Amino acid sequence: MEYFVLGVPVYRLRFRSKVSDETIKKFFRTIRQILSIVEECSEPFTGEIECDETMFGGKRKGKRGWGAGGKFLVLGILQRDGKVRTFPVKGRSAQRLIPVISQVTKPGSLYYTDDWHAYASLGLRGNHVVVRKEKGRPKGRNHLNGIEGFWSYAKNWLYQYRGVPQKFFHFYLAEISFRFNHRHEDLFPTILRLLKQTKYDQNLVRNV
User: Fold this and answer.
1) Residue 126, SS3 per DSSP
2) How far apart are CA 83 and CA 87, in angstroms?
């Protein structure tokens, strides 16, 4: 538990643990799955909200940027001075992004996005501010500093793992969101309480 809370990757524990790496991996994955459930149960956001997408994944040969192979496209939704939610998505179209935003935010919110056309209909759901940039910097006072700061936090956190299994990427993403949302707390008692409150399920452990 202490190693997980401190963010120590499994490969660094090979001389510190009496159990196998595979056992530690399963335990860590079980914690991440529980944290993902907690994140899914968050209350919908309201007020000032920033929405943005980014790509996760290591450097690869071939196409770069949006649509690059072996990359994960992630939508981030951040309530200013509050929490963040993250969602792996299969595309940047309005059909992919708007339903997710509608599910986790309340109507009447103030949305900040970049000028990607998929966000245009948010003006029908609440107030919509388009943040335009010039040479990578926002023009005017409006900004997306909150969600962009989270992207930096998330990518730096993932870097230490030297890559993560694709089928478990959403668990890692939920873990990072949980850590960010509880960044002012001691995570050890919080996670321990969640483990004690979660009903033991043999299939859950077996499946991770």
Assistant:
1) coil
2) 14
Return the pLDDT at 197. Answer: 87
Alpha helical stretches, state H, the chain: 2-6, 21-40, 94-104, 145-159, 169-181, 187-197, 202-207
| Tens-digit pLDDT profile for residues 105-137 | 999 999 999 999 999 999 999 999 999 887 777
Between 22-31, 52-61, 114-123, 146-155, the lowest mean confidence (pLDDT) is in 52-61
103 Cα distance to chain centroid: 16
Please tell me the distance from the alpha carbon of residue 161 to that of residue 146, in angstroms, as a whole number. 24
Neighbours of 113 (CB within 10 A): 22
Residue holding tokens 């951040």? 78
Q: Which uninterrupted H or E stretch holds 137?
A: strand 137-138
φ, ψ for residue 79, nearest 5 deg: -90, 120
pTM over 0.85: yes
Cα 123 versus chain centre, distance? 25
Cβ-contact 53, 97 below 8 angstroms: yes
Domains and CATH numbers, the chain: 2-207 (3.30.420)
